[in-house]
Design a protein that fits this description.
Layout lengths: L7 H9 L7 E6 L5 E6 L2 E2 L2 E2 L4 E3 L2 H12 L2 H11 L1 H21 L2 H9 L23 H10 L3 H9 L17
Length: 177
């Protein structure tokens, strides 16, 4: 199907059911041209916003929600602790996220957050603001991160799905334009 130009702000607001917080760019699009993952600036309204990649695709959100409801968060946490390579890969993904966030912030933003004591909300916080890197907060975060960057848990989640986008017969986001 031919990729079409879309109004990203309008589509993302409809995908989320609200206006997105802060400045964002589209990191990943489905084959129909709609946003699947956005990258959110790490400072929103003068406060730290630790979630760098946000899954917006309603199809993927629903499908991953089914995995979470089936207990996949706990299962993957156990698997991560049993497999040192998987655990190490996740720690590297968290470190990379911290470095990306740091690069996206201006010196002025860093200084302002440090001055009001909120920079700690980003320091050492990994994907989605996770402080305990051996835990999985939510699978949506990791899938978004895998689509936009590298994330071993997100890859496992995405591989478990029957598809990574809607069928051509029912493109959910076409109703959001």
């Amino acid at each position: 199907m031919e990729r079409k130009a879309v109004n990203d702000s309008k589509v993302v607001a409809n995908q989320l059911g609200r206006t997105p917080r802060g400045a964002f760019t589209v990191s990943v699009r489905c084959s129909y041209g709609y946003p699947q993952v956005i990258r959110v600036h790490p400072v929103v309204a003068g406060k730290p916003f630790p979630t760098l990649y946000w899954l917006t695709c309603p199809f993927l959100t629903r499908e991953i929600g089914h995995l979470e409801a089936a207990g996949w968060v706990n299962q993957l946490e156990v698997r991560m602790m049993e497999q040192p390579d998987l655990r190490s890969a996740m720690h590297e993904a968290h470190q990379h996220t911290c470095a990306q966030r740091d690069q996206l912030m201006s010196p002025e933003e860093k200084a302002a957050l440090a001055a009001d004591g909120t920079l700690v909300g980003l320091d050492g916080r990994g994907i989605g603001g996770i402080s305990d890197w051996d835990r999985l907060k939510c699978l949506h975060l990791h899938a978004a991160h895998a689509l936009a960057d590298e994330n071993a848990i997100g890859d496992i989640v995405l591989q478990a799905l029957p598809a990574l986008e809607c069928s051509q017969q029912k493109v959910i986001c076409s109703a959001y334009e």
